[in-house]
Specification:
Layout: E1 3-7, H1 12-23, E2 27-33, H2 44-51, E3 55-58, H3 61-78, H4 85-104, E4 109-111, E5 116-119, E6 122-125, E7 148-149, H5 157-166, H6 186-192, E8 199-203, E9 208-212, E10 235-240, E11 243-247, E12 254-264, E13 274-278, E14 286-294, E15 297-302, E16 314-318, E17 328-340
Parallel strand pairs: 1-2, 1-4, 2-3, 4-7, 8-11
Antiparallel strand pairs: 5-6, 6-17, 8-9, 10-11, 12-15, 12-17, 13-14, 13-16, 14-15, 16-17
Helix pairs in contact: 1-5, 3-4
Length: about 350
């Protein structure tokens, strides 16, 4: 029987993953890493007993999480970027530290409840495109990828929920949060850490339209939270020091962006000339051309309309259906700058 270590959160997804792995004949050990919230779900031990899966809780990961994920998040935020902590948490912890843990358990494989599919060193989109999480996984090391099993990649979220219910398992409802280490919201988190910088809200003609409590709370393309009346539909165009610059949506259109620290899915693969790129998790991918800038940097030229590209976010490349299928992830990197059309 093949031994596998499963990253267990206690939610529906990791529970469904445990059920499927046991059905597929794996010897499953569940591992819970204490990360952003710093606590262990009260129901976790009872849940793993019901699943007949041994549970190992890793308490020593919290301080490392603070030194890596949270410190980088705070550093990038202070630079005016829009960080994506889930990407580097997945790369370092959920697929890095977890694989090291799997080896200590003499496991041949590791698994998670992510909606994505691993195929050797390639990553593919999940069958459930609405839940697909492959965007967050481009930083997973190529040498680890062949050891990863993601059983939810081939089912939908609804099927996962039905599977858990069919086993008579009830999962306590947990509030949905954008960032695990800020369960009360980013404004409260940054304020409690003394990281909010108040400033002005200005338009492109340098007129002061209002004031804000913290430039760190805004991202490129944001409309909500501006609290400005009588000026029509306006969006955040950029952050300039402590000031937020706003304007119409048309001013957000981007013709190109520079991406650094790019990791390709195959070390033998040259940067594709043409592909799809997804530059935000909730933004559909668009066609682009890629120009290699040397090293691990590329310039991306958009061939379809692209708006509100935010430095600090991830740019993830997929096939465009010609040389590579459009569910195949080709690589990813960090957006460092963008060039507006206007």
């Amino acid at each position: 029987m093949t031994r596998i270590v499963l990253g267990m959160s206690g939610g529906v997804d990791s529970t469904a993953a445990a059920i499927l792995l046991k059905e597929q004949g794996y010897e499953v050990t569940a591992v819970y890493m204490v990360l952003g919230h710093g606590s262990v779900p009260e129901h976790l031990e009872a849940l793993t007993r019901k699943l007949d899966v041994p549970l190992h809780i890793m308490h020593g990961t919290l301080e490392d999480f603070r030194k890596t994920v949270i410190s980088r998040f705070m550093r990038d935020t202070s630079k005016g970027l829009t960080p994506n902590p889930c990407v580097y948490c997945n790369s370092y912890f959920k697929f890095g530290v977890m694989w090291s843990t799997a080896r200590r358990f003499d496991a041949d494989l590791m698994a998670t409840g992510h909606y994505a599919r691993f195929d050797g060193h390639w990553i593919r989109r999940a069958r459930d495109r609405r839940k697909d999480q492959s965007y967050f996984l481009w930083g997973v090391r190529n040498d680890v990828r062949p050891r990863i099993v993601t059983p939810l990649g081939d089912i939908t979220r609804q099927e996962a929920e039905e599977l858990v219910r069919s086993r008579g398992i009830e999962i306590p409802q947990r509030p949905s949060v954008d960032v695990c280490f800020a369960p009360d919201g980013m404004a409260k988190y940054l304020k409690s850490n003394g990281k909010l910088t108040p400033g002005r809200i200005r338009d492109v003609d340098d007129r002061v339209l209002g004031h804000h409590d913290g430039v760190e709370l805004f991202t490129i393309g944001q409309r909500k939270g501006l609290s400005i009346g009588g000026v029509g539909r306006i969006f955040v165009l950029k952050k300039q020091g402590a000031d937020v610059i706003v304007g119409p949506r048309e001013s957000l259109r981007v013709k190109s962006m520079d991406v650094s620290d790019v990791i390709w899915s195959s070390s033998l693969m040259a940067p594709p000339r043409r592909c799809l790129v997804q530059y935000r998790y909730r933004t559909p991918p668009v066609l682009c051309r890629i120009q290699w800038l040397g090293g691990n940097s590329v310039r991306v030229f958009f061939e379809e309309e692209a708006y509100a590209v935010a430095p600090g976010q991830a740019a993830v490349f997929y096939g465009d259906g010609t040389d590579f299928p459009n569910d195949l992830q080709l690589g990813g990197g960090w957006i460092v700058s963008s060039d507006y059309l206007q």
